Amino acid sequence: MDLIELGVPFSDPVADGPVIQRASERALKAGTTLRGVLEVAEQIRGRSQIPILLFSYLNPVLRFGFARLAEEAAKRGIDGCLLTDLSVEEAEDYVATMARCGLDTVFLAAPTSTDRRLQLVSRYSSGFIYLVSRTGVTGERDRLSEAARTLVERVRAITSLPLALGFGISKPEHVAEAGTLVDAVVVGSAFVRIIEQKAGTTELEESLEKFARQLSQALPRRS
Amino acid sequence: MIQQSLPDERGHFGPYGGRFVPEILMAPLEQLEQAYLEARQDPEFQRELNELLRHYAGRPTPLYYARRLSQFLGGADIFFKREDLLHTGAHKINNCLGQILLARRMGKTRIIAETGAGQHGVATATVSALFGMECVVYMGLEDMRRQRLNVFRMRLLGAKVIGVDAGSRTLKDAISEAMRDWVTNVATTHYLLGSALGAHPYPMMVRDFQRVIGLEARQQILEQAGRLPDVLFACVGGGSNAIGLFHPFLEDESVQMVGVEAGGRGPELGSHAARFTCGSPGVLHGTYSYLLQDDDGQVALTHSVSAGLDYAAVGPEHAWLHDTGRVEYVAVRDEEALEAARLLARTEGLIPALESAHAVAEAIRRAPAAKGQIFLVNLSGRGDKDIDIYREHFRELDEAGDANLPTF
After folding, report:
1. Which tens digits make up the pLDDT trace of B133-151?
2. CA distance to partner chain A, nearest, from residue B35 (Å)
3. Which residues pair with B377 in a beta bridge?
4. Whole-model pTM?
5. CB neighbours of residue A31 within 10 Å
6. What's the CATH number for A107-223?
7. What is the per-residue pLDDT across B344-388, written as a single tens digit (0 to 9) for each?
8. What radius of gyration, in Å, describes the C-alpha atoms of chain A?
């Protein structure tokens, strides 16, 4: 694994499928807050230099405050943020505030995005751009969509930023295919499902590690 | 000048409104806005909409002077705008007819909607049947339980009703699930949102389709009373019937306006849906507005006896009208709404929807001290769908009838 997406649970995750919805519910029930997630980041940073991207819906961050988040996130070694429901049109203040603390702002690009929107997304993004492989919520699928290939080509044509592809990527075959197109692949729900199934058992760590290995071995080798 | 020209081109009402959705939905919202702005200018679209409103929905609705209720209270003269007489039983049909014409114009073949009380779901199922489109309605399981009659009405009309088992199992969760469907099926599907909330252009578009309420009421009161009303009353869940009534009066400075929220069981968070009394600005379902939330920005659970008012956020134009002081927002508790419904039934023979009963309750509270004033109350829906709840609350009627009550 080359990067961790650390999610902040939200009560109304409209872009997420059932697996992440249930995970959010469990996390909130257990008392997870944005502050708590920042502390987790600090613990990870204590023993690893792996890049960390904070992933949240807008409202918990609005409540916390952009400036306070930028400061705290930078202090705890977080590298960047992605806010699922913050469109580029509304993002000026947020992007400037994060940039002042040296944090990257990652935005989503989708198959439905018009050319004008892709230009805006690439202008406001730093670090990388997160491409949504298909229309729909997060969750596992059998095949990688054709729309993904087209989107990658359209975004490559307008930016030199690295591209990551996510949504529906859950199997080594997906990773192998996506790995030929983009610089990074994002696997979320498939990991969260393993956690849901194995939480509290001795097999959890081993299952996650095994799955992560299967996925990374499927990646095409870089020259 | 003031409010009537809002929102701005990015969908803002002052600091409120806007478009806060995942990127997948941004371009579809831009297309919807474009299609709506074109349709609004198209005389043929307006002609077709007006014909449907007149011959199918039953417009114009009457403005009715409630003589017996006014005399009983001994103060203000109370008029009701009778949206309860519309086809499907509430104002929701005004917006549904507008949006289904727009959906057809955009080449969409599938309609989805959320519903709380079921009135918007029924209206959406109705127009979908009328236009031969597939229709899926999302409804919280708690709302399905308390609005059973409307669930069956939707199914009879050919709609698929999908129960949502998340959060408080009410309107908020139904909207989230409808948004997930839209994200997935956006190419073929129009999301027929039922209130003046959500991402731009919905708050503007739904308001425009509901303005007919206020436009008619303004003309009718001038004809019947010879002058403008002193106070307007409307209940506010998302706020579509209220903004529809208020908007054409915004520039009439002498006209006061009161939006009535659900005070539920009391002021504790989780027991009501009083966003203006107890909430603070935040983002939910695509728009920046007043929101009931905890200190961590998690959306709070809500309660109201009325499913249509049981929602944690409110339309962004109301947030702006609140901050500018143009509209006053108050909360009415479950008990007060139920008692108001009973009084209206006994004095005027009108059984209001529980939502509308909140507006009636506030008018009743203020009327005795307002001799010489004209009150105009939006009776946004009728109470047929709420008979089970009324029956549960007024149990003594099942046994003794109303014999022990005073006569008016």
Report:
1. 999 999 999 999 988 989 9
2. 16
3. B80, B233
4. 0.96
5. 8
6. 3.20.20.70
7. 999 999 999 999 999 999 999 999 999 999 999 999 999 999 999
8. 17
